[in-house]
Every structure is written in C-alpha cells, then in structure tokens.
User: Fold these one by one.
Assistant:
Number 1:
Amino acid sequence: MDRPHSHTYFKKAQALMPGGVNSPVRAFKAVGDEPIVVTRAKGDRLYDADGNSYIDYCMSWGPMILGHGPIKVLNEIRKAVRGGTSFGTLCPNEVVLAGLITAAYPSVERVRMVSSGTEATMSAVRLARAYTKRDKIVKFEGGYHGHADQFLIKAGSGLTTLGTPSSPGVPEAFAATTLTIPYNNIEAAKQLIARQGNEIAALIVEPVAGNIGTVTPQDGFLETLRELTANSGIVLIFDEVITGFRLSLSGAQGYYKIQPDMTTLGKIIGGGLPVGAYGGRKDIMELVSPEGPVYQAGTLSGNPVAMAAGIATLREIQSKPLFYKDLEKKTQHLVYGLNDAARLAGKHITINTIASLLTPFFTDKLVRDLASAMTSDTKQYARFFHLMFEKGVYLPPSQFEAHFISQAHTARDIDRTIRHAYDAFKKL
Ligand SMILES: *Cc1c(COP(=O)(O)O)cnc(C)c1O
C-alpha cells in the first residue's frame, strides 16, 4: 500500500518527538514498519494521511466501544464546548459522571476524576499506602497499570514487546517496594501473602489481563485474591481501565461478582477524551484531599468537555439492554471465523477471548500468564499484522495487546477480515 504522505509526516515527527510518537507502541517497532498516520476515523474505520481506509481492531486501545465518532457523543461534546472548555471549578457534568460510575459500581462509594489511567492507578496506590500505613505493593507479571515508577516492574504492553521488562530511571528503592508474582498463580499469591502480608499495602490486578494480550482469570483466582487480601488487611485494587464498562456495565467486578476495595477506571469512561478515575470504599476515599490528608490534584480533572463525552458514551451503552450481548456475538463471529480460517490454512493459533476482547496468539499452548504468552511466535504475529495491514485491516501493532470490538463493527467488515485472515494464514 502506498503511503507517501504518512511517510513524510513520520520523518518529520522523528525529528521532533522521541521515536516520532507520543506513546511507544504506536511506533510499530514490534511489527517492524512505519506507523500509520491517521487523519480521520468513523465507525469501525481509520483513514490515513494518504486516504487509505482500514478496519480498526485497536480502537484507540480501548476507549472507542461505540466505534469512532458516534453522533450522540459528538453532539454532546459540541454542546459542552459551546459552554467553554475548562473552568477549574466544580461543574455539573462531574456530578453526573460520578453518579453514573457509582451507580454502576456498588464497590465505588466515592470517586475522584483524573485525566488518565496512569494518574488513577498511581493515586490509588498512594491512597492505599496511606490507609494501611504500609509501603509494599503487589502486581502481576505482565500487568500494566500505566507508567508511574512503581508499576514499571515486569510490566506488560509496550514493555513486553520492546524487551525492557523494567524501565531505567526507576530508583531501586522504588522498585524494591513492588513485589511481582505470575498472573493466575493462586499458590504464588498465597505464599507471598503468608510471608509478607503485613507489609503489603495493596494488591493491584487487571481482573482480565489485557496487556499481555487477552488473558482471562482461572476459576477461583480472583475469589482467592479477594479472600487473601481481606484476611491480611491489604487493599485489593481492580485496575479496570480496560475492563470497566467493557466486560459489562459494572466491569469485571460485576461480571465475576467480586467486590474490590478500590477500582481504577479510564479509557471508556472518557468516550475518547482524556479521563481516568479512582474510587472505592468510603472509609478509604475519605482520606483523599481536601476531605483527608492524602494529596492529589489536577488542573484539568473533571474537565467539562471530557465529562460530557464520558456521560454520552455511558448513557448510550445504558440505553441498549442488549449492548453487551450484541458486542459479544460480534466478537464470537470473528473468533470462530479466525479459528476456522487458521485450521483450514493449517496454522496453530490460540485465541483468548472474553466479551468484546480477543487476542490470537501464534502458539498451540494455552495462554494463561506472561510466560505462556511469551511462547507466541511474535515474528509470525508481525507477518500476520503486515499481511492484514496491506489488505486494509488494522490490528494492534503488537502481539501483546488486546483486539477490541466496538458497536460499530459490521458483520460485513468482520467477514472481510476473516477472508483476509485466511489468505494471510496460508502465506505465513
Ligand atoms: C491503558 C491502561 C492504563 C493506563 O491508562 P493511560 O490512560 O494510558 O494512562 C492503566 N491500566 C490498564 C489496565 C490499562 O490498560
């Protein structure tokens, strides 16, 4: 596919910004190519600077559950913009979005809006440390919780593909406060908490791992984490930045019927604008400034336009009783199609899927944690990515990311994707 304009933009970008991008995975390093330069998006399509169109399965990494540019959300954004773009005061939209979130998540009795998922997780951990008066935290190998220092230890997403399991620049003393264990490993969690439970402030987990590709929790995994943390006075944080409003209206905690002490949200709740949130039990949240002593603030937190986009998105989801059923059906359509295509082409793949998330791994092993995800042949994924990209299908440019299905994905585009996938599998 010819992309001269995209090429020119990327060359300029490289001279101006590290790696030519503002977030690492966008650079296509994991699949070895020049990145897509997008000028416009609508429905399930992206349009690049050269006028090529792509069926999008990345969907801005999760937020666009309604598809790109949904009319109702755009209208609410326009309305909000007319009233001014930032006030730096309490505004009605914040109250509305906070109400929608707390109504959907019974475990979230109080909520604080921020501007990104990173801010949400970082603030949640500070709060948990203050609440428990302990310093250590536990995260899972391959878990991604944004880029705050304490989380860049065996972190997923771009860190997995770039081969930097931990980032330079994180002081050793910080790194030492983060303990890691393999995802889905109940025994490791039991042993760690038996040994060091009384030093641990928080255990943070993506209830469905999304940043080593999609990996679902085994039976009893989340239940055991709930029990262990409750017994040891550890704050259980569900990082639902991906799963919130994705697995169900009440996220993974509603889907699996488990109440964490704290929850972090992002992506979907901003409807494509920068929003994050953290919340949880009232007795924990009341420590947050100005009610309590734990400081956390933000110039653009609760921004009226961003809140409007979030409200419109959540209301659209709520107005459709079959919203999640329909999304899951679409996703299953694609998953069955990809499995059939691979089988007919004689390729071994393992597709992990739940709700509207999926990841095809190029391995015949079960993928249940970081180690098994790493058995995937990432060179094959990169080739598959390219073959699909050339046909106008944009998959996440890395093996270790989830594919996202939106309300805007059409059966026709999914069928087209399956046909292209069959051709691609045959060429691998
Ligand atoms: C994307 C993501 C984050 C970080 O959110 P940003 O808005 O990118 O800072 C945190 N946790 C999880 C699980 C995520 O997928």
Note: The domain at 71-318 is CATH 3.40.640.10 (Aspartate Aminotransferase; domain 2).
Number 2:
Amino acid sequence: MRSLRFYLCFLALYASISFPTKCFGNICLPKDHVAFFIFGDSIVDVGNNNYITTNLQANFLPYGETFFQYPTGRASNGRLIPDFIAEKANLPLIQPYLYPGYDQYIDGANFASIGAGVLAETRRGLVIDLNTQLNYFKNMETLLKHKLGEEEAKTLLDKAVYLICIGNNDYFVPFTTNSSVLKSYSPEKYVDMVIGNLTTAIKEIYKKGGRKYVFLGLPPLGCVPYIKAQIPGNTGACMEELTTLVKLHNKELSKVLPKLESQLKGFKYSLADFYSFCTERINSPSKYGFTEGKISCCGSGSYRGIPSCGERSNEYELCEKVSDFLFFDSVHPTEKAYQQFAELIWSGTPNITGPYNLKALFEH
Ligand SMILES: *[C@@H]1O[C@H](CO)[C@@H](O)[C@H](O)[C@H]1NC(C)=O
Ligand SMILES: *[C@@H]1O[C@H](CO)[C@@H](O)[C@H](O)[C@H]1NC(C)=O
Ligand SMILES: *[C@@H]1O[C@H](CO)[C@@H](O)[C@H](O)[C@H]1NC(C)=O
C-alpha cells in the first residue's frame, strides 16, 4: 500500500514535470491540449440520435457489436472515423453532445446526427440539422466560458480541430424519398445552395475561434448498395445522376476551401478524399484486405441494399465475417474501412488529404 502511494506520488510528480498543466478549479489541461469537435451526419454521429425523437437510429444490434458489444448509436459495426482520430490524438472517445449529463467539453464534443444535412429542408424534424448543431456548439461555448473563463475558453476553441462531414443526405434524400426540394433547382444551383450554407456555417465556427478544420469529401453515394439495389434491371450500375451531384459537390468544396484560407486569417484545413478511398475499395477490395466491396454485410435484397439491418426487423441477413466487407449496412462502411481511412488521413500525403494532414493539424 505504502509503496503504491509512493509510486503514485512519484508518478504525479513526473507527470507534472514532463507535461506542464494549467488548472481551472478542478479541471487541469496539458499545455498542448487540443480539443476535437465534430459536426455532420451518420458517418460521424456517435450517438446523438439516441436522444432525439426519430426513426433514423442505429441503437440496436448488430450495430456496435464488433467493437463495443452493444449498440451505441453509431451506424456501423464498431468505431467511426472520429473515434480513430481521437485515439491518434491521445484523446478519449469524444462523447455525443446530447449524452445525458455530459458537460465536460474540454476534450471536445460531437454534434453530428444520423440523417442530417446542410439544408434545413433535409429530413426536417427528424435530425439535428447543421444549423442546430451550430446552435448547440454556441451553447457549449457559453458553458466553457463559465467554466474556464473567457480567455481560456477562447484559447481552447482556437487550438481545437473541427471535423465536418456533411452533405451526403442533401443529395441522398431526393433520390430515396419523395422530397421535391432538389427537383425545383438545377444540379449546379442546388450544389451552390449546399456549399453556400456550409460556408456560412464554417464562418460561424471561425468567429467563435475555430482555425483548424478537417473536411471529408463525399463518398461515391451513387454506388452504395442501397442505391444500386434501386437501379432497374439490377445491372450493377451506379446511379449517374447522384454521382454527378456528388462529384460537383466535391469539386465546389475543393474550390471554396482555398478561398476561405485566403479570406480568413489563420484558417487551415485538411480536405480528405473519401470518394477515391471508397471507389478503390469497391473496385479492388482484395488489394485492401476485403473480399467484398459491393454487397453489404447486413441487410436484405440485392446487394443487401434494403436497409433492414437490425433487430427491429427479423428479415435481414448478416454476413459471417464482417472484416471481409467494405459496407456494413446498405449505406455505411464497416469499422475496418473507417480505420483504414482514419489511418490514411492522419499521416497521409496530399493525394489522400491536404494541404495539411490531421497529424499536422493536431500538432501545430
Ligand atoms: C413516393 O410517392 C409515391 C406516390 O405517392 C409512392 O408510391 C412511393 O412509395 C413514394 N416513394 C417513397 C420513397 O417514399
Ligand atoms: C441556404 O439554403 C437555403 C435553403 O435551405 C437557400 O434558400 C439559401 O439561399 C442558401 N444560402 C446560401 C448562402 O446559399
Ligand atoms: C499517394 O502518394 C503516395 C506517396 O507519394 C503513394 O505511395 C500512394 O500510392 C498514393 N496514393 C494514391 C491513392 O494515389
């Protein structure tokens, strides 16, 4: 007992020498602490939708089973990109903002919501849209100021990294529901609206101190099992109309970010090429350690593209070996795919993420 106490005391002394900290009441932060905030959709939601009234959820098995052994609200079999990035950045898993009783925010918070889009019209009433995610972020800022004081809260938000993965649903919804918003615009005008609203949101975060951003480009949505299963004749083709929109969005995003960099002092970003990452694995799964890149692990129908995965329906099939698959359900990649992507963008070269990689954003 005594030696343990001596050891702990020594450890504490050692820790305080090698990792200088700053304390506010009972909260102590290492001097080089970098928080991590996440905005977006099901690619990055770690459980916010568990706490809203919606049918857009993943809080039932087999979601979560591979890593957590229980459903967490993550729309995959295990961890998502932000979980792997947090680990690389020596942070704990970043909690959903709506997690009851969660008010630490020192390490960050996750505001993402399954089904959410940039536009308020996208699944209105069923999701936490981007604007509401921003309002939650602003509420959190107020709380942080109370806790840490004005100046330290500002420093924390200045040094933090902001991951934004949104837009998928703005393009997906018009092809999967009877929503007519897209139909009244040309593809160019619609993409302009999405990118325009996204730009407004980035500027809001910038105003609150945000300087370092990670953007995930959109994946090949026209080729996910859900969409392929809807193509008449079951030819294996992707949906070209959707592919065109996604490519247009990615192109516009890659143009608007350098503009923001030149307009906003200190703005730094990493734009990650999720599109090529997924396309390469859909076409050549075996090159990347998968055996199946086109059929999902969990669902029903052609390509298991009918989104029936989970215990709410007993009419779904579940694959035997999830690590063989690129897609877990009709839309979402597996934990293994997310892990590969997180590793690539963490230390990646500009052909997968640039101008900065994530390691550089967290360390400088
Ligand atoms: C769209 O509307 C038509 C006719 O009202 C209906 O038959 C169809 O099921 C709807 N599709 C979706 C995806 O909601
Ligand atoms: C934002 O989206 C709305 C539709 O939700 C649209 O009317 C508006 O023009 C968009 N704003 C920008 C700056 O593009
Ligand atoms: C990216 O560049 C690296 C090193 O320059 C190379 O090894 C890798 O194959 C490239 N990846 C792609 C997807 O082009």
Note: Residues 349, 351 surround 2-acetamido-2-deoxy-beta-D-glucopyranose (ligand 3) (CB under 6 Å).
Number 3:
Amino acid sequence: MFKEYQHLRIPGPTPVSPEVQRAMDRTILGHRSGAFSEIFAQTCEKAKYVFQTKEDVFILASTGTGALEAAVANVVEPNDKVLVLVTGVFGERFVKIAKAYGANVMTLKFDLGTTAKPETVKEVLQQNPDIKAVFLTHCETSTAVVNPVEKIGNIVKDTDALLIVDSVSALVGMDLKMDDWDVDIAVTASHKAIGLPPGLALVCVSQKAWKVIEKHKGPKFYFDLLAYRKKIKDRTTPYTGPVSLVYGLSKSLDLIKEEGLENGFKRHQLIRDMVRAAVKALNLELFVQEEEAASCTVTAIKGNNQLDVEQLRKILREDYKVEVAGGQQDLKGKIFRIGHLGYIHPLDILTTISALEMALKQIGYPISLGAGIKAAEEVWCNDKNIG
Ligand SMILES: *Cc1c(COP(=O)(O)O)cnc(C)c1O
C-alpha cells in the first residue's frame, strides 16, 4: 500500500507540489516552436523576481554542478588567480572545478560549521589585487551554514574581482539580492527550494561579469554563456531546452510570486526555528551553534556515542518513510541533516520531528516522547501569536 509513500527531507531533490507536477504533464512542444518560445520567454522573465535582479536569467539543462562549471568556464583562463572561500564540500567543489580549468587557486578555509569571515576576505583581496574572482557558497549544504553574501559582496564590489555565488540550496529559501548585494554570477538549480525535479539550472550574470566574459578566451562549449545570451534575444536556448522542466518552472515561479518571496523566507525561517527548538529539547546537539549562521533550508545534527546517525537514518527510512541525509566526506557518520526547503509546510516538519522522536526511542536514546514536538509547536504557535 505505502510503497511510494515518503517524506523527502534531504537538501535536494525536494518534494514537488501537485500544481508543478501537473504543469509538467503537458504535451511536449517543439523546443523551437512559437508556443514554447512564448512560455520560455515568460519563464525567463519571471525568474528575475527570485534573483531580485534586472539582469537576464539563463536556463541550462544541467544539475547545479553544471551551473557552477558554467560560472568557472566563462570567467577563468589558465593561470588566473582565483579565491575560493571553503566552508565545506561545496566550496571544495568550486576548488576542483577551478583547478580543472587551470586556475591558480587560493583557498580560504573556515572551520566546518562556521561561516566565511568577511574581514579575512578583505585582507586577502588587499594583498592580492590580481584575484580575478571570489567563489562563495551561499548555503553550505554539507554543514548547514549560511554565508554572509551581502557583507562579502560589499567588499568585492570595490575591487576588480567578480563575486561568484553558489546559491543552489539557498535561493528562494533565503534572501539573495543579486543586484543590491553586488553579486556578479549567481546560480541555482531546480531540485532545491524551487521545488522541481533535478535537471535544470539557472544562472544570472551582472554587467561587471559580462565585461569579463566578453573578453574570456579559455576553452568552453556547452556552457558558453555568450551563446545563451545571444539566443535569449530570440526567446530560445542554444541547444534543446528542458521543455517539461520549463513548464514546471513557470508554474513554480507563479506559486513563489503568489506566496511572496519575503513570506517564503519567513516560512523557511520558521521551519528552521521549529527544527532547532526540537533538537535542543531532545538533548541533541546542533552542528551550527551560532543562530545567525544557521541555514533556513537545512539543519545538521550531531551524533554521539549514544547515537549512531547511520542507524537512526535507517530506522527513519525503513520504519517511518522519512528520508534524511547523512554527513558528507569528513562528516560522514558524524552528523545527519534534515532538509527543509521548497514545497514544505510547517506541519510537515512536525511529522519529521515525530518520526525522529520515535526512532530515537527505538535506539534507546534518552528522550521523552513529545518533547521535541512540544518545543516546535510552541515556536509555531508563537509565530502565529497564539498565546
Ligand atoms: C545540491 C547542491 C549543488 C548541486 O549539486 P548537483 O548534484 O549538481 O545538483 C551545488 N551546490 C550546493 C550548495 C548544493 O546544495
């Protein structure tokens, strides 16, 4: 009976709403047809709202990593000096891609579970005026921190360097003001807070970045953004667009607009606060201590000698149909992560917390049933002003 039943609580892919699911059901149109062009052009236009930008937003048929590669491939030439701010696995991914394109990579590493420090970035940029680009992960999904994009944007804007931001697991769940915060390239992907299946990525480029891209001579082909810019004028993509995902994106952007970006951010924040309150009430330890550094889209929770996180994940999956994420690389076996981004209602997280309590009880972890639920409900009631 419940073969397909599940609660997908990983930081992407995320659940798809029935509205978006239905929108994607539409007959496949030819990717060069007038009818599809119309939908495509409207969708690109609507996407500006989520980046809070006046610039064009480009649709790529790829996952998030393809968009990260696009950002590198269009800016970095062999031996260019770039600075990567590393707060976890996704910062490391920028390092790997930049190296693959021959960059001379400087890294600034910050302790796992903490954010990039703007003062340090400022010093390094002053000492290295030849840095061509600074790469930053908005929400570092592997540790569940949110980096201070605005503050770093404020520093990078006064230099010749570009600020390139991986907002894959943040955009739509947390504020990103492309134009006001002086972000030069921002990227996101469909299967995170936008709430579509995997396979589509979005890239937004500032005027400062275009000047660099127009002069760029390094090797690139599929991700050559100048080709996308040329084709967007004709209301199309250089290669076959991900037609069904564009239908879905169009609907998803309507739903996001209808809720209002700000209200969406508040919803994500409320859910984060509910999770954090529950975790504390269950005597579990949050991986990100500092409230301000805690992402609104994913929460990481530490294991300990009474709590084997992999055993917990297995019970959650098999007995309760709740899928949560484990730790990646150095954090494997040390933390588990609850994804709470996109099409998620506060009530959904109460279900997750309930399953978590029962699974903890099952492995003999000392908790009292209902403690986490109570703490989370109080946060929600308080938010609704129910005294
Ligand atoms: C999910 C994610 C990506 C993209 O990963 P793909 O598997 O290529 O979609 C990139 N950066 C961050 C921060 C992510 O959370």
Note: The longest strand covers residues 81-86.
Number 4:
Amino acid sequence: MAFTTLIFVIASCVVTLLAFCGNAQLSRNFYATTCSNLRTIVRNATQQAVTKEPRMAASLLRMHFHDCFVNGCDASILLDDTTTVQGEKNALPNKDSVRGYEVIDDIKAQVEAACNATVSCADILSLAARDGVVLLGGPSWTVEFGRRDATTANLTGANTDLPSPFSDLATLISMFQAKGLTAQDMTALSGAHTIGLAHCSLFRSRIYNDSNINSRFAATRQASCPPDQGNGDTNLAPLDVQTSEQPFDNLYYQNLLTQRGLLHSDQVLFNNGSQDALVLSYSTDNSTFFRDFSAAMVKLSKISPLTGTEREIRRNCRVVN
Ligand code: HEM
Ligand SMILES: *[C@@H]1O[C@H](CO)[C@@H](O)[C@H](O)[C@H]1NC(C)=O
Ligand SMILES: *[C@@H]1O[C@H](CO)[C@@H](O)[C@H](O)[C@H]1NC(C)=O
Ligand SMILES: *[C@@H]1O[C@H](CO)[C@@H](O)[C@H](O)[C@H]1NC(C)=O
Ligand SMILES: *[C@@H]1O[C@H](CO)[C@@H](O)[C@H](O)[C@H]1NC(C)=O
Ligand SMILES: *[C@@H]1O[C@H](CO)[C@@H](O)[C@H](O)[C@H]1NC(C)=O
Ligand SMILES: *[C@@H]1O[C@H](CO)[C@@H](O)[C@H](O)[C@H]1NC(C)=O
C-alpha cells in the first residue's frame, strides 16, 4: 500500500471514530481546561452538605436516578414549574419526596463563580451523586462529563417511566430494560436503598398486607405507620433496618434474606425469583456488590445524554436560560 493511501486510511478511520464518538460520547477530561477545579468544588460542597445531614447523600443519589430515567440525564428534574415549562417536580414519584434541590443550587452557584457558563447542571448532579456515595463509605466510579441541559421537562415521562414501590419483579426488570439496564443492574442499583428513608404511605401495604415479611420487623414498622390511609402518611422509616444513615454497605441484601426489605419492590428481589442468587451473592460479598453497583451507576449516568451543542448549559439549574 502506498504511504499516502495508508495515511488516508488512518485519517478516515480517525474521522469515522470522531463522528461516531464525538457526539454521543462523554469524557473524563471534558472540563480539563475550561473548569479544572470542578471536582474539588463539587466534592467540597457535597461534603459540607453531607456532613450537615448524612441523608443528603441518599437524596442526591436518588435525584440523579430520577433525572436519568426521564428523557435521559439532562437535569430536567431540576426545572421549576413556570408559565412556559411544566417541570417534573410534581410528578407522583417526585412530589414531596425528591429533595436536595437547594444543595444543587449551592454547588451550581460555586461552579458558576469559578467557571462561568461552562458546566452543565446534569454533570454537576452526576458528580455530586457519586461524591455522596463515596462520602458514606460506598464505592467510587469514574464520572465522565459533557452532558448538556434540557430546555424542557417531561411530567408524563416522570409519571410513567419511574418504578413504583408497589411494582412486581417482572415490571421492575422491564422498566430498567427500557432504559438499557439489565436485571442485574437493577438488582445492584437497588442496593442504593442501604441509605435513606421512605414514607409510610409507600410501605404501608407492605407492612400490613405482604406475606413474605418478618413479623417482628413488620410490627416495629407498624408502630410508626398506622394502617389507615391518610394517617401518618409522611412518617419516615429507614430503607435499611440495620445501618440506614451510613455506611453505604451490603446490609440491604442481608435484610432481604431475613425478609426485612422495607418496600414491596425491595423484597421482590428475594422472593424465590430470578434475582435470588444475585441477592445472596451481594449479601455475602460487598466487593461484588460494589463492583456491580459502580458499573451500573456508570451505565445509569450515561442514559441518553444531550451532548455537543445540543440545548444549553443552564446558568441557573431551576430555569432555562
Ligand atoms: C428498583 C426500583 C426502585 C424503586 C421502586 C424505588 C422506590 C423508592 C421509594 C418509594 C423511595 C422512598 C421515597 C419516599 O418515601 O419519599 C426510595 C428512596 C430512595 N431510593 Fe429508590 N427505588 C428504586 C431504585 C432506586 C435506584 C436505582 C436508586 C439509585 C441508584 C435509588 C435510590 C434511592 C435512595 C438513595 C432513596 C432514599 C432517598 C432519601 O432518603 O432522600 N432507588 N426509592
Ligand atoms: C466549600 O463549600 C462550602 C459550602 O458550600 C462553601 O461555603 C465554601 O466556600 C467551600 N470552600 C471552598 C474552599 O470551596
Ligand atoms: C458569563 O457568561 C455569560 C455568557 O457567556 C456572559 O453574558 C456574562 O457576562 C459572563 N459573566 C461574567 C461575570 O463573566
Ligand atoms: C416523555 O416521556 C415519554 C415516556 O418515556 C415519551 O414517550 C415521550 O416521548 C416523552 N416526551 C417528550 C416530549 O420528550
Ligand atoms: C390490606 O388488604 C385488604 C384486602 O385487600 C384491604 O382491604 C386493606 O385496605 C389493605 N390494608 C392496607 C394497610 O394496605
Ligand atoms: C466488606 O465485608 C467485609 C467482610 O464482611 C468487612 O470486613 C468489611 O468491613 C466490609 N467493607 C465495607 C466497605 O463494607
Ligand atoms: C420459597 O420456596 C420455599 C421452598 O419451596 C418455601 O418454603 C418458601 O416459603 C418460599 N418463600 C417465599 C417467600 O415464597
């Protein structure tokens, strides 16, 4: 092959690769020259928030999940309702439940002060979610950057695409599959329920009406969650009965083995079904859990990002520019 032909072949491969990856691909060093302090700023601000209230790590992690499952990881969850935008904050799975918006505002303000109009809200949320897990003793994973922010939200999508605590196993698997995540990813990601709290209204039927529940555990939870609808609905209980606040560990899976999952959707992962073996292995080996959780978080955080010059870098995460 002539030298010039070889060069041409190599050049067209590079061009093809760029065309292929340049758009849809996120990268580690996306802000290397434009906001080199990003990681430090976000880590510090997340640490302050989590030190003040450890649960904030759980809340930010869940917020990232609820962002990514609705039109991709595009910070659509952060948009407030305005006359022109109908946000997702009042969707059933989010209303009076997703929290931590002020923490993202605070981080964004600090990032804007250092790197004006450069870093997307979607990237900030992804990074803060990771930092929160690490701060509570959980695994770390590489966060890649380059997501852009949506200029619209999808209330309908938030109501239809986020899993419900009353779901059965087949429904959970198919809802994750619809986002490109496997049953294993779903089971590993559910381990996020090793931290954080849930409302009585969302586990009432579980503690009064499910059969696969430890009776002492049910009695304990019933003490602060009365049976009648509308009564004590907003009372909170830890998702992980053993070490709820922290650390981020694998005891969530050990709870499932003793039928002490708080949500119906937790216990279906260990109920003589397809995920039993995986739950068993995560319960005995935190390194396997950490490895699979991290890999699944990387996948979750890359669901349909906006990239390149799509949409915008929002200046204030709550409103479009
Ligand atoms: C498998 C399907 C899932 C269902 C049905 C589900 C459902 C729920 C429900 C009902 C709550 C309590 C909300 C409240 O009472 O206000 C909750 C909390 C939480 N979820 Fe999930 N979840 C699922 C998967 C996930 C995933 C994939 C993650 C993250 C990777 C996650 C992270 C969390 C965290 C950290 C909390 C506690 C939030 C806090 O204390 O502020 N969940 N989830
Ligand atoms: C760390 O975060 C806190 C709270 O957000 C902020 O007040 C402080 O200025 C930050 N410090 C640095 C060095 O960025
Ligand atoms: C920040 O960037 C915006 C948009 O590029 C620009 O209009 C504004 O003047 C900048 N502000 C500062 C303080 O540099
Ligand atoms: C909103 O989400 C639903 C469910 O995923 C989807 O079918 C629909 O296309 C989305 N709408 C917009 C405008 O993105
Ligand atoms: C339990 O199930 C029964 C029968 O379906 C229903 O009448 C009752 O309201 C349920 N109780 C709770 C607390 O979910
Ligand atoms: C993982 O499990 C081992 C053995 O049970 C335990 O000694 C270790 O502290 C655990 N590590 C974490 C980070 O939970
Ligand atoms: C699972 O199957 C075993 C053996 O068939 C049975 O004893 C047990 O009650 C079942 N557990 C559940 C939660 O269905």
Note: The longest helix spans residues 3-24.
